[in-house]
Write a structure and sequence with these properties.
By secondary structure, the chain is mainly alpha-helical. The chain has 2 domains: about 90 residues; about 60 residues. It has 6 helices and no strands. The longest helix is centred in the middle third of the chain and has 69 residues. The protein starts with a helix and ends with a helix. About 20% of the residues are buried. The mean pLDDT is about 80.
Length: about 200
């Protein structure tokens, strides 16, 4: 018998590389396990290469080891192809998602602007139909009316103080109550007149 036929140097590594290469092919073809297939293929190539080197040095048979190396390389190729395809698909999906998000943001901004404009228009229309004047002119008039009302209240307070100086405590309380009632009535009348005008 020839020495090369009985020498099994590198055969164990070749068998391990063959098993890993065979397993790497279906894992490399499937969509979600291509990374596992890539790892198996790399291990298969590494073990087969080391086994081939040992077999060459020992002058042993290399047929099985070469087959293991080829199968591992095929598994590596399937895994790389699937990974490139998955990365490409992921990039397309992310670009579509980004475009949709940008479109949603644009629509939201446009819709928000329309809501703001329609609210302002509705407020102005309601105000004009209710009061018939310009908003700024009405607010200015209302501010003037409030200032004049404040001046009248101050004047009434000064008049009341002047009137109650000469009275006793009982008379002061009675006069003060009457003056407060009169001032309150005038205030309510003035308020009614202002709302009736508007």
């Amino acid at each position: 018998m020839n020495a090369s036929s009985t020498n099994t140097a590198g055969m164990g590594l070749g068998i391990a590389g063959l098993v890993l290469g065979i397993l790497s092919i279906p894992f490399g073809i499937m969509g979600c396990t291509f990374l596992f297939g890539l790892v198996l293929a790399i291990l298969g190539i590494t073990l087969s290469a080391v086994g081939y080197s040992q077999a060459r040095q020992a002058n042993a048979q290399t047929g099985l080891i070469i087959a293991a190396l080829i199968i591992s390389i095929v598994g590596f190729g399937f895994s790389i192809t699937r990974m490139a395809n998955s990365l490409n698909q992921s990039q397309i999906i992310f670009e579509k998602a980004r475009d949709k998000v940008e479109k949603i943001q644009e629509n939201a901004e446009e819709y928000g602007d329309k809501i703001g404009e329609s609210y302002e228009e509705a407020f102005e229309e309601g105000f004009k139909s209710e009061y018939g004047d310009d908003l700024e002119a009405t607010l200015d008039q209302l501010e003037k009316d409030l200032e004049s009302l404040g001046d009248e209240i101050k004047k009434a307070g000064v008049d009341i103080e002047a009137d109650v100086k000469d009275f006793t405590d009982e008379d002061q309380a009675r006069k003060l109550g009457k003056a407060a009632g009169r001032a309150l009535r005038e205030f309510v009348d003035e308020l009614n007149d202002t709302t009736d005008k508007e």
